[in-house]
Amino acid sequence: MRRLKCRLEYDGTQYAGYQVQPNGNTVQAELEKALSAMHKGDKVKITASGRTDSGVHARGQVIHFDTPFQIPEDNWKRALNAMIPTDIHIAEVEEADPDFHARYDTTGKEYRYFVWNHQEPDLFRRHFYLHEKRHLDVEAISKACSLIEGEHDFTTFCSSRTDIKGSKVRTIHQAAIEADGPELVFIFKGSGFLYNMVRILVGTLLEIGRGERQPEEILKMIEARNREAAGKTAPPHGLFLWKVNY
What we know:
Elements: E1 2-10, H1 27-38, E2 47-48, E3 57-67, H2 73-83, E4 88-96, E5 108-116, E6 130-131, H3 138-148, E7 150-153, E8 169-180, E9 183-190, H4 197-209, H5 217-224, E10 239-245
């Protein structure tokens, strides 16, 4: 038996999230269906670095699974990509240590959120960018981002529907916004993230960009440890799981 580690990309538009669930098709279900076919009907369980919600995309999701087959890594990549839908792509396959764990061995993650800040929509970005018509003050957003960095209890920026029982303290190594004309990219790198944390942060930062809140209010929100203190949750389609570190 050998353990394989894969990096995969997916367009989450048509999926009810990454993780298998009864109310819709998922990325995990498509991958496990392909692996089962390769293993002559035997179920193959895959483990991911974490789950993504319905409509969320990934460029750097990482999974692992065990197999008795001694197929070369390049052949695994070619075979799987031939069997899965075209909106999922296996980017890399490599053999991992027998005790490697895609979820528990992570040392940090990077998420990116894309916004198209223009009066007119861009039709060809609609599945991957949030369209914001109103002018956004990038300087104010950048100032607020700097206050997010560091170790904090991020209870305020966690969905009330979370099933996390332990500490909500996380370390954000980088929170930033980059602007290229109307294209805005929010970048978050951290030790870990809570349920809906990035989307709530983005929703709050957009309110700051529109002048509805002041950058300094971020500190009061963190101190409040109350979801109601933060802004609205940004829609899922602008969010990408960009990279997972080990």
